[in-house]
């Protein structure tokens, strides 16, 4: 390795490398042994419940928080020795953090001013950035005269105009109402792709993480517990914590048994054909997504049960059904027919492979 | 439709009258042609305003008060802004003690302060000097500035400053371009309040002036202990006039309600 040229060494490394990152506040461990690699141009989400250390991780990359140990490499540079103001990262804060005493143009131009960009070039780049976020007509406004979504875009433009190597977003959409949030998700994805900037987003909203990112990194109590594509994180959660945190699921304790090649799931007195698994026989955690359960006729049913609760959500129904293996959440798409009433008997069917088996007893 | 009932209107009118009454009396008295305090004046005369010009020691005293107010308000602002930034947002050992120290002049009786200052200044042999006065007044008015600045500091979102830092601004630039503009209402408000407090201060100042540094309140006070002519009234009227002009100017430049009630930075 010693005689390899330097550029080769650089190629083997990802664009952003977090290595064995730790942050402790006295007794509190905020981030523990955190490793993550992000490729150039990638959009990665850091997803986890409140207090799991997402902001702390982001702030360490930004340089506002000093790691207790570990290293942060960006494009081959060690950021550890570089102060926050010289890291050249674009950051969008949860509260937008616009300068209230400056107009939109002044806000967006601030970073260029700090870089001593001549004023004519500054004007051009500010107007390009405002074009990108569709706000060219509001350059003279003060932030307090703008809506939440508009402020959000100003904050994005301000972060992007300095052409950062890395864009950091801390819960950028959590202050918006649900409808605007969905719009801004699409908008954010478009802007990120147009700017082609490597992006790390922090969020506790699983739908936001899945909608936006190439890769989702799930955090729990300061640790990274899974990183995968949104589809794989959802379909192949590594722990039962992830399966319940991402979307809805029926999580049941079960017993795994093998009869020859085939597996069997035992819950109370009920035996079901099980999925392929590498897990050993014994107690497991079963995860079954409500959208994988179909309504069918009695002769094809895996199990039957009575509806004890139902919720209508426009595009689908959500039923809670009392079955021999426990209460199951069942989703049914709304196809314009009336949904089952409470007390009605439903016959449920699912493929054995729809059941995901996870080792029992992990923290959740 | 009348939003205020008769009772409320009467109450407010009486309250305003009660607040304004002394000022009206003082202004009225200052126009009297007689040699004694007369209200309402029997005729309108500028006799006692002309008399101010014949008493240059009052004019000197007014200048001293003005310079003292400017100097002590500015000095206390320079001290209180960094103190407020540290107290308002950092967590360090001795933070509560520091805040208590800065606010303590409010809790010590002014007479006690006066005696203490007298002894203290004598130790350094600067008793009665202008510098001594400035230092003492700065101590007295700092709590006012600190409280107003502290209130605006705690209202500033730290992430706004982080944003500026991430965009490449140095500590000093962040302070000058972001923090200071955001806390400016508190700073200006504190300064004005400090100036007025210093200009007006009597109890402590009496202990520490000498004939060459006598302030206007002290000069007026010693004048009325000897005679009671309407000269005091005409000088007071001039002070009221100047204050009104100052307030109008501040209002024009800045908006008084924003200053006194507080509000969002522009
Ligand atoms: N300055 C600090 N001093 C002490 N503990 C801290 C400090 N900052 C964060 N922590 C702790 O570290 C842990 C992680 O905090 P962090 O802000 O990173 O969480 P988060 O994942 O961003 O949560 P949220 O979704 O609520 O923003 C929390 O338990 C928090 O209490
Ligand atoms: Mg956070």
Walkthrough of the structure:
The complex is a heterodimer of chains A (364) and B (266). By secondary structure, chain A is of the alpha+beta class. Chain A folds into two domains: 162 residues, 3-Layer(aba) Sandwich (Rossmann fold); 112 residues, OB fold (Dihydrolipoamide Acetyltransferase, E2P) (Beta Barrel), CATH 2.40.50.140. In chain A, strands 6-7-8-3-9-10 form a six-stranded mixed β-sheet, with helices on both faces. A five-stranded antiparallel β-sheet of chain A has the order 13-12-11-14-20. In chain A, strand 9 and strand 10 form a beta hairpin. In chain A, helix 3 runs parallel beside helix 5. The longest helix of chain A has 18 residues. The two termini of chain A are 42 Å apart. By secondary structure, chain B is an all-alpha fold. Chain B has one domain: MetI-like (MetI-like fold, Orthogonal Bundle), CATH 1.10.3720. In chain B, 74% of the residues lie in helices and 0% in strands. Chain B contains twelve helices and no strands. In chain B, helix 2 packs across helix 11. The two termini of chain B are 35 Å apart. The mean pLDDT of chain B is 87. Classes of the chains: A alpha+beta (364), B mainly alpha (266). At the A-B interface, helix 3 of A face helix 7 and helix 8 of B. Bound molecules: adenosine-5'-triphosphate and magnesium ion. The site of magnesium ion has 2 residues of chain A, from helix 2. Adenosine-5'-triphosphate binds next to strand 2 and helix 2 of chain A.
Short summary:
The complex is a heterodimer of chains A (364) and B (266). Chain A has helices at 6-12, 54-62, 104-114, 119-132, 148-160, 178-195, 206-212, 230-235, 240-245, and strands at 16-25, 28-38, 43-47, 69-74, 77-78, 90-92, 166-170, 198-203, 215-220, 223-228, 250-259, 262-267, 270-273, 282-288, 294-295, 303-312, 316-323, 326-333, 345-349, 355-359.
């Amino acid at each position: 390795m010693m005689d390899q040229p330097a550029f080769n060494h650089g190629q083997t490394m990802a664009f952003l490398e977090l290595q064995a990152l730790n942050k402790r506040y006295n007794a509190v461990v905020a981030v523990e042994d955190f490793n993550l690699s992000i490729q150039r141009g990638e959009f990665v989400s850091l997803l986890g419940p409140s207090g799991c250390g997402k902001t702390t991780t982001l702030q360490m990359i930004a340089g506002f928080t000093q790691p207790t140990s570990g290293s942060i490499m960006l494009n081959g540079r060690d950021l550890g020795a570089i102060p926050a103001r010289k890291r050249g990262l674009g950051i969008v804060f949860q509260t937008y953090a616009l300068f209230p005493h400056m107009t939109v143009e002044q806000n967006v131009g601030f970073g260029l001013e700090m870089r001593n960009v001549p004023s004519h070039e500054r004007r051009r780049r500010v107007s390009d950035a405002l074009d990108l976020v569709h706000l060219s007509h509001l350059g003279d406004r003060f932030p307090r005269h703008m809506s939440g979504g508009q402020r959000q875009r100003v904050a994005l433009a301000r972060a992007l105009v300095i052409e950062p190597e890395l864009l950091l977003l801390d819960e950028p959409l959590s202050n918006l109402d649900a409808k605007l949030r969905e719009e801004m998700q699409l908008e954010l994805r478009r802007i990120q792709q147009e700017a082609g900037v490597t992006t790390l987003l922090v969020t506790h909203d699983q739908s936001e993480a899945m909608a936006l990112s190439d890769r989702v990194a799930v955090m729990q109590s300061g640790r990274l517990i899974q990183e995968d594509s949104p589809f794989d994180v959802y379909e192949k959660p590594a722990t039962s914590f992830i399966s319940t945190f991402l979307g809805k699921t029926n999580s049941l304790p079960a017993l795994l048994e093998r009869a020859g090649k085939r597996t069997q799931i035992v819950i109370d007195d009920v035996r079901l054909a099980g999925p392929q698994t590498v897990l050993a026989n014994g107690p497991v955690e079963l995860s079954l997504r409500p959208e994988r359960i179909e309504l069918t006729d009695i002769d094809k049913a895996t199990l039957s049960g009575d509806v004890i609760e139902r919720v209508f959500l426009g595009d689908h129904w959500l039923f809670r059904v009392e079955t021999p293996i426990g209460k199951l959440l069942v989703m049914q798409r709304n196809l314009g027919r009336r949904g089952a009433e409470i007390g009605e008997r439903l016959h449920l069917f699912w493929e054995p492979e729809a059941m995901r088996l996870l080792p029992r007893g992990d923290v959740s | 439709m009348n939003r205020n009932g008769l009772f409320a209107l009467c109450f407010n009118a009486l309250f305003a009258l009660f607040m304004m009454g002394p000022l009206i009396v003082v202004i009225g008295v200052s126009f009297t042609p007689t040699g004694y305090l007369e209200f309402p004046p029997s005729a309108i005369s500028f006799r006692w305003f002309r008399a101010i010009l014949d008493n240059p020691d009052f004019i000197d005293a007014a200048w001293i008060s003005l310079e003292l107010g400017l100097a002590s308000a500015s000095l206390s602002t320079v001290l209180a802004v960094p103190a407020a930034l540290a107290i308002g947002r950092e967590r360090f050992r001795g933070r509560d003690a520091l805040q208590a120290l800065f606010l303590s002049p409010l809790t010590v009786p002014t007479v006690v302060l006066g005696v203490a200052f007298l002894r203290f200044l004598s130790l350094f042999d600067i008793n009665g000097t202008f510098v001594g006065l400035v230092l003492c007044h700065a101590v007295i008015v700092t709590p006012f500035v600190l409280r107003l600045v502290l209130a605006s500091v705690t209202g500033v979102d730290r992430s706004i400053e982080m944003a500026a830092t991430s965009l490449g601004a140095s500590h000093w630039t962040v302070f000058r371009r972001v923090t200071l503009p955001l806390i400016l209402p508190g700073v200006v408000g504190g300064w004005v309040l400090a100036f007025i407090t210093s200009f007006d201060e009597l109890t402590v100042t009496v202990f520490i002036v000498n004939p060459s540094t006598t302030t206007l309140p002290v000069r007026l006070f010693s004048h009325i202990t000897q005679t009671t002519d309407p000269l005091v009234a005409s000088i007071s009227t001039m002070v009221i006039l100047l204050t009104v002009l100052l307030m109008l100017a501040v209002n024009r430049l800045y908006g008084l309600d924003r200053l006194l009630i507080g509000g969002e930075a522009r």
